[in-house]
Design a protein that fits this description.
The protein has 109 residues and is mainly α. It is 68% helix and 0% strand. The protein is globular, with a radius of gyration of 16 Å. It starts with 16 loop residues before the first helix and ends in a 7-residue tail after the last helix.
């Protein structure tokens, strides 16, 4: 993935906190089975990924912060102020991903 500082994105939807959290959880939950279908994993690796999910919010935030620092993006102060909410959002994603790794696989078809 590559970041291009010339691209500006605007988001106009204003979901409630509950809708936002549920959406992140469900997307994280959908990501794990998709990943396992595309790249079949042995059971031990699936459980290892599940065990590492609680650390995922810090890893994801670290990637965003690293990009902001390296490229001196103009929203660094806003990112600092939003860090607690970003961590909560990433927490919902990782909880969903954890659930996706630990759910029983559903038959395809």
């Amino acid at each position: 993935m590559r970041f291009d500082s010339r691209i500006h994105v605007a988001h106009v939807a204003h979901p409630t906190w509950r809708t936002f959290s549920r959406r992140l959880f469900e997307r994280g939950r959908a990501f794990a089975p998709m990943r396992m279908r595309e790249h079949p994993l042995p059971a031990w690796r699936r459980w290892l990924l599940a065990a590492l999910c609680p650390g995922l919010p810090v890893v994801l935030l670290g990637r965003v912060v690293r990009h902001a620092v390296r490229h001196r993006v103009p929203y660094r102060r806003a990112l600092l102020a939003a860090t607690p909410l970003v961590l909560v959002g990433y927490g919902w994603w990782s909880a969903g991903e954890l659930r996706g790794y630990t759910d029983r696989p559903t038959p395809r078809g």
